[in-house]
Amino acid sequence: MTLLSIVLPAYRVQGYLxxxxxxxxxQGFDDVELIAVDDRSPDHCGEIFDEYAARDARxxxxxxxxxxxxxxxxNVGLAQATGEYVWFVDTDDxxxxxSLETVARALREQAPDVLIxxxxxxxxxxxxxxxxxxxxxxxxxGPNGADxxxxxxxIKTIHTVWNKIVRRDLLAKLDLRFAPGWYEDVSWxxxxxxxxxxxxxxxxVCYAYRQRRQxxxxxxxxxxxxxxxxxxxxAWELIDRQGSRADPIRPVLFARMIxxxxxxxxxxxxxxxxxxxxxxxxxxxxxxxxxxAGGFAPPRGADGLRYRLVxxxxxxxxxxxxxxxxxxRSLRDALAAGLRERAGSGSHLGLLARAYYRLQRSLPLDENxxxxxxxxxxxxxxxxxxxxxxxxxLAPHVRGVWMIGxxxxxxxxxxxxxxxxxxRAYYRLLARAKxxxxxxxFPDFVRKRPGQVHLQTHHGTPVKAxxxxxxxxxxxxxxxxxxxxxxxxxxxxxxxxxxxxTEVWERAYPCAFESLETGSPRNDRLARAGAAESAAARAALxxxxxxxxxxxxxxxxxxxxxxxxxxxxxxxAALGPRGRVLVRGRLVPGADSPDxxxxxxxxxxxxxxxxxxxxxxxxxxxxxxxxxxxxDRPIVLYVPDWAEYxxxxxxxxxxxxxxxxxxxxxxxxxxxxxxxxxxNASSERRAAFRDRFCAWEDxxxxxxxxxxxxxxxxxxxxRPVPPR
Length: 724
Description:
Mean pLDDT: 92
Distance between the termini: 49 Å
Number of helices: 26
Helix content: 25-40%
Strand content: 15-25%
Oligomer: single chain
């Protein structure tokens, strides 16, 4: 029999699911099975599960025919489990390194009915914080491994399911299943602890509990928080079925219930105002209904006061106490927000500019005005340019104006409406435009107005670590991630080129945007291009039709890394007498070679022309690999510094494993690869790469974005593109 079954229900957690699965499977522990339950998740959770199951026999996937909710999904997984013990893990959390061996050792040596492990809370920004569970363990005096009668204060430990590993036979004996609704942990955990004869506590941190900024029930205002009453009633019903076993611990269990109900229904971040009095009186009903026969002595302090007010059904007094607490908290929050406001704007804007921007923000929005920007105001290009072009055709009532830096104003295409950064027109556009479109973030001083719509298009499929993921790598040491989150909180829409991008954006920028799975707007031209477009691109570059053209486009490196050795003249020679090398990239070695077959195109404005003119792409960790793959032409990865780059900058995927073509670890290998049969090199790998990353590139991505953002239409994700 397998020692441990881990049940993993998933619904809308695609951004975190791989991290969860890796935290379990990469520990090298084999005495485990993973029961992965796809609760009819509308995102890519089911596909991710299937991908892992295809390469790891420890994973079994259950795809539910309809969404049933977390509790029932756990029940479905439990019914398929075969392990001696069961661990219900939430798929937006992770297990800590080495935790499976630690847990397995405790299960084998102690043979508990329930093993409770310590955990840490992980936050979007900053270091994890260990829980206070050790204090609860210490306060629960009595022998470790005893039941609740010997250690009644174990009731005061957190009631969550995910830090408890349970003997499967005990669940069958107690006929314990999860009930539907929010707070399903309550009606499962407390009957379980009452029924367990051996409860062993483990002080080692084995679980990382993610504190999510979006999607967490505890941060959601919703009448469904009232379901906590139903689960406490069910908990008492299941406990009463166990007879006198619970009698000695009823007082401490009662105190825990009242504390939890006040934490839940007395929290203004959970219930709307019109339900607070109702929830208070219902708590008072529960107080009277389950009050132990011997009475109850409230604790001292603020909690004790609230207990007494509940017992007397003194709603007005209770509401007054809560109002004072809210006012104190609001004052603290307002002071903190004011400090952030001054830090975010005063450090970047002069007094007059700040005053003018605030004045413009007080004036009405222009419902038919869109402000566009790309690459920190450097140019008119990329996804925003493709979106603007589509908007001219599909939403002609929306006037588009570009924001351009002072140094880049001379490079704006003729006839392009634009404003210069720092001008009054610039601040007016930021303050008055209904739509703001960018492929990076706008500056910190920008304040999103009610009614404004921010569209984040990004600038390619991510290979390197992005957003909050950079916190774990040296390249992110100087970043202000709290400020990054405030900037990203402005997004209403986030464009995804592929499913991988969606996963990364939702994890790296955990904000309340809508993911637009449309494909990459800037690749529409490539998806529609044919032989005539390629010929025109070559003509614009002065490249003869009969030459074999290699385009070298590496990504930049974080200091102290530098670009790898590269000799474009030697590469051109390897291509033969009709070979040519186009070099695009800052500080590429040999880009200024006098060889006529080497052409430096770093300053060429339209990068799509370079793709169309090239027969072969040589690159590395750059998003250009995904763009060029749309053309279905050979790609070679030149990655001699993969280990160093990944250690310094991080990576969101293994570009070597998933490479669309041959991989060169040295320049000599690169020369050898380009001297071989290039037309059909690694065509199978390229096809698999295109299926995974280019399936939505059908030439209509920008149209889908415009229809959703500017016209308010619902758009259907594109179907996979058939092979060329």
